[in-house]
Every structure is written in structure tokens, then in C-alpha cells.
Design brief:
The complex is a heterodimer of chains A (208) and B (274). Helices cover 68% and strands 4% of the residues of chain A. In chain A, 61% of the residues are buried. Chain A has helices at 11-31, 37-50, 67-74, 78-93, 101-122, 128-157, 162-171, 173-193; strands at 54-57, 60-63. Chain B has two domains: 31-161 and 249-274, no CATH class; 163-235, no CATH class. In chain B, 64% of the residues lie in helices and 3% in strands. Chain B has helices spanning 40-56, 60-76, 81-105, 121-144, 150-159, 164-193, 202-232, 250-271; strands at residues 110-114, 117-120. The chains are: A mainly alpha (208), B mainly alpha (274). Chains A and B meet through helix 1, helix 2, strand 1, helix 4 and helix 7 of A and helix 1, helix 3, helix 4, helix 6 and helix 7 of B.
């Protein structure tokens, strides 16, 4: 549901989104060493594939947004990585539009960067339990912040979207719950199998 | 390839991941089409300008024309009718959700009422406007960009002087989606064989989480091997584009001419006050 089609948002919102995303992508790309590109691309591809999984919820189904996980794994590189993923979704599946890409990237990548900060602060000790809780929190917070930004973009585009804007936030609550458990599981597994990815050496990870 | 192109189903969790093969992604026909010979850069730029123009339009007649133009482009690109419609329907599923409220929230002259809430003429008009805009842009994206191979799109972006790192990221991602998609289906088959089904419970969410954790671990190790191989061949942050940029030909000029004419027609139609 993070995809807003073209034609909905107003020009000032579109411009602001484009400016923030452009700056974020420029910063993310500058920080990205050429040798890390395959790894970042791999995670971007994993997020793309994971977003295609439909989880049944009641009579309907939802798909994950995964920007919390993207933030934890990629940091600022989440900006260009999410731009690539959204661009491919637009071109291959017709999800979302072209002019809204700036806003969409901002809506997903800003929370991602915040989640990264949250995760780093909470998991510093290397305690397994704490790290997994941090991951779960980052997963849920990422989704809810994105929902808030989407609804803000809608509300700022016109009074007539106020009702939808509120609904968007509520509609994302199930996604946030699923994603929080999903993200905790992913990080739990990485912590066991390949803690280097998260910036830990294997001796740093402790159970107590 | 049939196994790769399995159709998405919400409760079996199989995903609609189009195979990477000659002739474009996303189930488009592989045959030569009119737009195929037009320079990819021109198609990218034209698509961007079209989207910018359409987003700025407000009159229903000019929006109808924009949709018609996108339809013509789709025919020129020989998009498959059924799969294109399916994609637009998926898009409209979301828009309809947004649009449902518009007639009731835009103030104006009432035309009908539902449960005591009055729908306004202006609101319906606004809803139609958004519906036309969104569909015109998406159809044009699928016609101009979706009909080329993603790698071609990456090369076009490189030739349009987008940052090299971004283009590399794009090209690597395109490649890895194919790799990870295959790996994902393999792991899901293994889970299915053990009786796993997608349900609405924490066990499902955790299991799929472990699946993607495993996917990441294997993938990251793969990326490490690739970086080693690249380093060993003296990679210095630069790839050669494997395809030559073809010289600008008659078709390209014709395409530019048609695009300019279409843009002018849209703007003129918009400026006539209806």
C-alpha cells in the first residue's frame, strides 16, 4: 500500500519528496563503496522478492514493505536501493507511478534510516535477545512511519484526502505486526549464521 | 520457463516473477515491435516528459486524449492485452479505494446520497480525473519502458549520464532478482513438501522470515565471491556497456516528432477551456 499512483498528490508534495529523495540518494551513493554494490544490490533484490509474498490476513492478503529491514542492513544505502526496487516495480508490474517515485522513496527510506539508528543504539551490547527485540521494533516502526508519511503526503495534497489518510494508517497495523515478527526472525537467523553482516564479530554475540 | 512464470496466488504464496529472457520482462511478447528500434534513451526521456505533462493536466478531454495516446503506444509496443489489463486492474484496486471517498469529501453540488452522505459532482469529477491520470501514466510506462529488457533500461540510464554507481546497483539488482527468485521458489517447494502452508499466525511469519534470512546469507556469500572475482580482474568501479549505442536513425526522428506533436496536442487541448 506504499504505492501511491500518479495524479493524486499535489505539486508541492511531489517536489518536496523528489528533493528529499534526491539528496538521500546522492548521500547514500557517495557513501557506497564500489565494492559493496553487489551486496547492496543483493539485498535490494531480496526486498523486491520478499515484497511479492502475499501473507493471508482474514479474507484478504497483505505484502510486506520491509523498509525497517532495509535500513538495518543498508543504512543510508537504503535510499538508492529502495529507488531501484520501486523503479523496477513500476516498470515491471505497473505498481505506483513515475512522478511519485520521489515521494515513495522518501516515504520508505527516511523511516529506514531512522530504524537503522534505533537498531544500532539498542543492539550495541550484542545481547541476542535485545538485538532481536530491536529488530522487531525496527520492522514495526518502519512500517508505521511509512504509513504516517503516506498519510501525511495525502493529507497535505488536499482536504479531500483526509479520510483516506486516516484509513491508510489503520490499514498498515496488520502489516506492522507481521513485519515486526518477520524482521526479528531474519535478524535472529543472521545473528546466528552470519553476524558480520550486522557489524558483529561472532564472539560479540552473547546469549546473556 | 513455465515453472518460472507461475501465476500469483495469495494463499499458495507462489509469486508472479517474470522470467528474465530475451524480449522483455513481464510477459510481454518477444516479437519485434515498432518501438523496439527506437533508441532506449529517447523512450526513457519521452516517458518522463509524458508523465510530467499528464500529472499537470486537469481537463477531462485532455486526460482522455492522454489515455488514448498511451493506448496507441501500448499497441505499438504490442503489449499483451490480457496481462496489461490485469496489471491496470491491480493498480485500479488501490485507486478505487482512494477514489471511493472523493465524491463524499469534495464539497460541491450534490448529485446523489448514500446513507445520508451526499456525493458531489465536483468530487466525482476529481475521482475520474485521478483515475485517468494514473492509468495513462502506468500504461505509458508499460509501453515505453516495460517493453524493453531491464538491462537495456540500465544501459539507457547509463547513457543518460545517471551516476555510474546507481546504474551498477540497478543492473546487479536486476540480475539478483532472477537468482533470488529461483532460490526462493526452491526453498518454498522444500517447505511445501514438509506440509507448510501460509496461514495467518506467527509461525508462518517467522518461518518466512527464516527463509529470507537464509536467502540473504546465501546471497551475501555469493556477492562476496563475486566481489573477489571482480577484484581479481582489476575492477575499478567501471563496467563496459556491452551494447553499442546505435546511431540515431529515421525511426528515432519520427518518434521524437510524434512525441512533440502529442505533447503539443495535449497542452493545446488543456488550454481550451471546456
Amino acid at each position: 500500500m506504499a504505492h501511491i499512483p500518479d495524479g493524486v498528490l499535489s505539486a508541492p508534495v511531489l517536489l518536496a519528496g523528489a528533493a528529499v529523495s534526491l539528496a538521500g540518494c546522492a548521500y547514500g551513493l557517495r557513501q557506497l563503496a564500489a565494492e559493496r554494490i553487489p551486496q547492496v544490490a543483493l539485498m535490494s533484490a531480496a526486498l523486491f522478492v520478499a515484497a511479492l509474498v502475499h501473507f493471508p490476513v482474514g479474507p484478504s492478503s497483505v505484502h510486506l514493505i520491509l523498509n525497517g529491514l532495509a535500513g538495518i542492513l543498508l543504512g543510508w544505502a537504503a535510499f538508492p536501493a529502495l529507488l531501484v526496487a520501486l523503479l523496477l516495480q513500476a516498470v515491471l508490474f505497473g505498481f505506483g507511478g513515475l512522478i511519485v517515485l520521489g515521494v515513495s522513496v522518501m516515504n520508505m527510506a527516511l523511516p529506514a534510516v531512522l530504524c537503522r539508528a534505533l537498531f544500532v543504539v539498542m543492539s550495541r551490547s550484542g545481547n541476542r535477545r535485545r538485538t532481536m527485540i530491536a529488530a522487531g521494533l525496527a520492522g514495526g516502526v518502519g512500517v508505521m512511519l511509512t504509513a504516517l508519511l503516506v498519510s501525511l503526503a495525502l493529507a497535505l495534497s488536499g482536504q479531500e484526502f483526509a479520510a483516506v489518510a486516516k484509513l491508510v494508517v489503520f490499514a498498515h497495523i496488520p502489516v506492522a505486526v507481521i513485519e515486526s515478527i518477520f524482521t526479528a526472525a531474519v535478524i535472529g537467523l543472521l545473528l546466528r549464521v552470519k553476524p558480520e553482516v550486522l557489524g558483529f564479530t561472532s564472539t560479540e554475540v552473547r546469549d546473556e | 520457463m513455465t515453472a518460472l512464470a507461475e501465476v500469483s496466488h495469495p494463499h499458495t504464496g507462489s509469486i508472479d516473477l517474470p522470467p528474465l529472457q530475451k524480449g522483455g520482462w513481464g510477459g510481454f511478447r518477444a516479437s519485434e515491435h515498432l518501438l523496439k528500434t527506437v533508441d532506449a534513451r529517447l523512450r526513457v526521456v519521452a516517458c518522463g516528459i509524458f508523465a510530467l505533462t499528464v500529472v499537470g493536466l486537469t481537463q477531462i478531454p485532455s486526460l482522455l486524449m492522454a489515455l488514448a495516446l498511451a493506448g496507441c503506444a501500448a499497441m505499438a509496443a504490442r503489449l499483451e492485452f490480457a496481462s496489461t489489463l490485469r496489471r491496470m486492474a491491480a493498480l485500479d484496486g488501490f485507486i478505487l479505494f482512494v477514489l471511493f471517498f472523493l465524491p463524499f469529501t469534495v464539497p460541491g453540488e450534490g448529485i446523489f446520497s448514500l446513507n445520508g452522505v451526499t456525493a458531489s459532482y465536483e468530487g466525482v469529477l476529481r475521482a475520474v480525473e485521478i483515475l485517468l491520470k494514473a492509468n495513462a501514466v502506468v500504461l505509458m510506462i508499460m509501453a515505453l519502458l516495460g517493453s524493453m529488457e531491464p538491462v537495456e533500461l540500465g544501459h539507457a540510464m547509463a547513457r543518460l549520464r545517471l551516476p555510474v554507481k546507481f546504474v551498477h546497483l540497478f543492473l546487479f539488482t536486476v540480475r539478483y532478482i532472477e537468482v533470488l527468485g529461483r532460490e526462493y521458489r526452491r526453498l518454498r517447494t522444500a517447505m511445501k513438501a514438509r506440509g507448510f502452508r501460509l496461514r495467518c499466525d506467527p509461525h508462518t511469519w517467522r518461518s518466512i522470515g527464516y527463509l529470507f534470512g537464509m536467502l540473504l546469507v546465501r546471497g551475501i556469500e555469493r556477492a562476496e565471491r563475486i566481489v573477489t572475482a571482480m577484484r581479481c580482474r582489476g575492477f575499478q568501479g567501471h563496467f563496459h556497456l556491452m551494447t553499442e549505442a546505435e546511431p540515431v536513425g529515421r525511426r528515432d526522428y519520427a518518434f521524437v516528432g510524434l512525441s512533440v506533436m502529442a505533447a503539443c496536442a495535449l497542452i493545446i487541448l488543456e488550454s481550451l477551456h471546456w
